[in-house]
Structure formats: C-alpha cells, structure tokens
Amino acid sequence: MDTKPGSRWKSAVCDTEVVVIRPPKAPVSLQCGGVEMVAQAAAKPEGATLSADFSAGTQAGKRYTDADTGIELLCSKAGKGSLAIDGRAISAADAKKLPASD
Questions:
Q1: pLDDT tens for residues 53-73?
Q2: What is the 3-class SS of 20-75, one letter each residue?
Q3: pTM
C-alpha cells in the first residue's frame, strides 16, 4: 500500500475516508472496520463486512496517529468503522492546547 502524503483512501465497509498527512516509516496495511482500505478512485470490493471489533467509528476533521509507525491521517468523511494499522487499532490524536492569552 503506497501511503504517500496527500494520498486518499476509503473504507471498503463503511463511509470513512482519510487523507495521509504524514506517511509511515515502513509499509503498512491501513484498515478500517477490520478490512483493508482501498484507494479513493478504486471500486469497493464486494462482500466485505464491518467487524464488530473495529466498529467504534471515525469522526470527520479528526487526526488519527500511530506512534509506532509515525503515520498521521486526517478523516475527511466519518463512518461506522474504526481505523487500524496492521490489525492494531489507532485512535484520534488529542488536540494541542493553546497558550492562554491574558
């Protein structure tokens, strides 16, 4: 899977779509809903179903990161499936706190 910066991916089992912000250090399998994601322009495979273990959902506008691989994704369209790298679930990154202005 060629996850270069700016590449767009969509879930094979739900409406989730992501954009790669920072690529991983090594090749990875990007998954959503327990099934490997497909390139934005590719057709969704037939017969794929959402895994109950990866059904926490994604939120549009949130960034998802994985410290082990260094990948950073931006969710451009929300869906029912949750994101995973090589079968390991990843979660939304915490928002950076801004300094208080007095």
A1: 999 999 999 999 999 999 999
A2: EEECCCCCCCEEECCEECEECCCCCCCCCCCCHHHCCCECCCCEEECCCCCCEEEE
A3: 0.86
